[in-house]
Write a structure and sequence with these properties.
By secondary structure, the chain is mainly alpha-helical. It has one domain. It has four helices and no strands. The longest helix has 42 residues. It binds zinc ion.
């Protein structure tokens, strides 16, 4: 792959990394706040099972979101490492070249279209 395309994809990855990190920080903040709120609610109103239920749900939802962002962030970091080591753009399964158009859509993809379909 030529340097210009690689630089472009590296830029996309770094931007994604920043966005994921910001999103994560935001969610973690919200997550901590909701925990504080709920403990306050519990002491003020000890018998509100409905509130407790919805709170657990939103907490589960944010922890699910956090997990999925952490996973994506891991893939982005992995792709950035591959750019540094010069293995970026190569399928991790069959070692064929991943087309630029495909990388442009999902810059952190590890597999070529063919192998990606198999999994
Ligand atoms: Zn492949």
């Amino acid at each position: 792959m030529d340097t210009k395309k690689l630089k472009y994809l590296e830029g996309l990855l770094l931007k994604m990394k920043k966005e994921f990190e910001e999103e994560l920080a935001e969610l973690e903040e919200k997550f901590n706040l909701s925990q504080q709120d709920s403990s306050h609610d519990i002491s003020a109103y000890p018998t509100h099972p409905a509130d407790l239920g919805s709170d657990t749900e939103s907490r589960e939802e944010s922890s699910y979101l956090i997990t999925s962002i952490v996973k994506k962030l891991g893939r982005v970091n992995h792709a950035i490492e591959k750019i540094c080591s010069g293995t970026y753009g190569t399928c991790e399964n069959c070692e064929s070249k991943i087309p630029f158009e495909h990388l442009k859509t999902i810059p952190y993809v590890e597999l070529c279209v063919k192998c990606g379909k198999k999994t």
